[in-house]
Amino acid sequence: MRVAGIGYRDGAPPEALHEVLALAEAAGGRVDALATLAEKVAGVKALAEARGLPVLAVAVAGVQTPTQSPRILAMHGTGSVAEAAALVAAGPGAGLVVARITARGGMATCAIAETRGHIR
User: What CA–CA distance (Å, rounded) separates 56 from 37?
Assistant: First the structure.
């Protein structure tokens, strides 16, 4: 199972979310679901619906990530919302296939995690 974690700043245009997911999938292959913070689900729904994918709300505080943003760490308790969301949603034993990628303009990020299990 492959899950794309999506992070974005308030006010990010929908195009930024589409762009960053396309970039991540070009690097790591198609995904089966999207994941983000509970408070960000509404902003990801249109992307999920356009792609026919479920969107999962996850908690990311305390999840260790390979990339680190001091701003995101202070706000959310993890170094990368995109990486942490992908790892949590993909489940135990998941690993990153694509580390955090940032859309042009820096308004959205995406990472892909994969596991052989099922999405919770």
Answer: 8
56 within 8 A of 34, measured Cβ to Cβ? yes
Question: CA-to-CA distance for 46 and 25, rounded, in angstroms?
Answer: 18
User: Using one digit for the tens of pLDDT, what is the confidence trace for 84-95?
Assistant: 999 999 999 999
Taking only the tens place, the pLDDT of each residue in 45-77 is 999 999 999 999 999 999 999 999 999 999 999
| CA–CA separation, 64 and 90 (whole Å) | 14
Q: What is the 3 state secondary structure string of 7-48?
A: EECCCCCHHHHHHHHHHHHHHHCCCCEEEEEHHHHHHHHHHH
Helix or strand (DSSP H, E) at 97? strand 95-102
pTM of the model: 0.93
